Amino acid sequence: MKTLKIAAIPGDGIGKEVVPAAIDVLNTISEIHGGLKFEFTEFPWSCEYYLEHGDMMPKDGLDILQSFDSIFLGAVGNQHLVPDHVSLWGLLIKIRREFEQTINIRPAKVIKGIRSPLLNPKDFDLIVVRENSEGEYSEIGGKIYRGEDEIAIQNAVFSRKGTERAMRYAFELASRRKKHVTSATKSNGIVYSMPFWDSVFKEVSKDYPDISTDHQHIDALSAFFVTQPDKFDVIVASNLFGDILTDLGAAIMGSIGIAPAANINVNGKYPSMFEPVHGSAPDIFGKGIANPMGQIWTAKMMLDHFGEEELGTTLLDVVESVTNDGFLTPDIGGQYTTKEVTDEIINRLKTFK
Ligand code: NAD
Ligand code: IPM
Ligand code: MN
Fold first, then answer.
1. Is 188 in the same domain as 303?
2. Residue pLDDT, tens place only, 99-125
3. Which of 253, 273, 280 to mutate to test the pocket of ligand 1 (most atoms within 8 A of CB)?
4. By residue range, what is the domain housing residue 135?
5. Per the structure, how many domains does the chain have?
6. Whose CA is nearest to atom 31 of ligand 1?
7. What's the CATH code of the domain at 233?
8. What is the predicted ipTM?
9. Separation of 292 CA from ligand 2 center, angstroms?
10. Are 316 and 109 in contact (CB under 8 A)?
11. Which tens digit of pLDDT belongs to each residue from 142-159?
12. pTM beyond 0.80, yes or no
């Protein structure tokens, strides 16, 4: 029997609705499989926790998480209680950085039964490899107070190691797919980081002669997502470009409520963290209508990560059969609740051949 110890952090807002749903799904998979067991430990770390304790997680929070095989997180953020940059840097970004989860993998494709705004959604099937630990997200900068001339300076950080690591990851991934990598750049307007990014990309690509490449400025690339989706296989992007691109990708998938993601610790020193693309969705929290599919697809990525690709594929097939038969939450044009969609997935998993 393989037992996986998972730290569950539902977090804020709809994270508290979709994480329990996905846990029910994972427990069903374990019942069916027999040889695989999940041991979930839930942590209430969130903005409410902050109000009580003055921090998003306990001082030894990372030590606690270190003993788990992976982290399964919903979403973080409740701006009414805690400023976003405080809550996010105190929990989500803290875990990503301290646990060296330097790569964020974000697949995007359109599955059956879901309406995409694209005319030719079948062509949209790609993976964004987002650099997850540096880039435009930095704590380096400052504010200079000079009355009307007040200035805020925010520095971006692009290390050779971090840039190369994200790019190599993208090439390796592409070698198992359609063998094409697109680099998201902006070297026409940004004079230090992006020309550097381009030169590293050029160097790394020489090690992968079988993989074709192109590079696009992020503005044009965003437009090509919509107008020429079949251009893409794997896209490597900086932290911010990857963030924006994957909300666009999610919209093309039909809803941000569907899109999955994985924060990967590539050196194996720390647990990886599985957390969907979407946020805490305060506008729908408490209504029971959050789409659980993003969290459930994220669970599929966690299964893949643990070498259980067959189970992962089964799970996504079942999700797709459910959407294909019209069991949809309101964000994708349906009338079903989080619970109804989740129960349908669970019931079909039990009888899936
Ligand atoms: P959001 O993703 O929470 O919501 C954007 C829109 O998408 C909203 O209309 C929301 O209702 C909808 N939506 C999101 N997930 C959905 C789902 N599963 N089902 C149906 N509809 C869904 O983004 P936002 O409004 O920019 O951010 C809200 C809060 O979440 C902020 O505090 C933000 O910082 C935080 N956030 C956290 C994460 C994370 O923890 N990974 C990611 C993004 C945003
Ligand atoms: C995401 C989110 C986070 C990010 C925010 C909430 C800090 O948008 O995971 O996509 O930008 O990384
Ligand atoms: Mn985002």
1. no
2. 999 999 999 999 999 999 998 888 899
3. 280
4. 116-253
5. 2
6. 77
7. 3.40.718.10
8. 0.99
9. 18
10. no
11. 987 778 889 999 999 999
12. yes
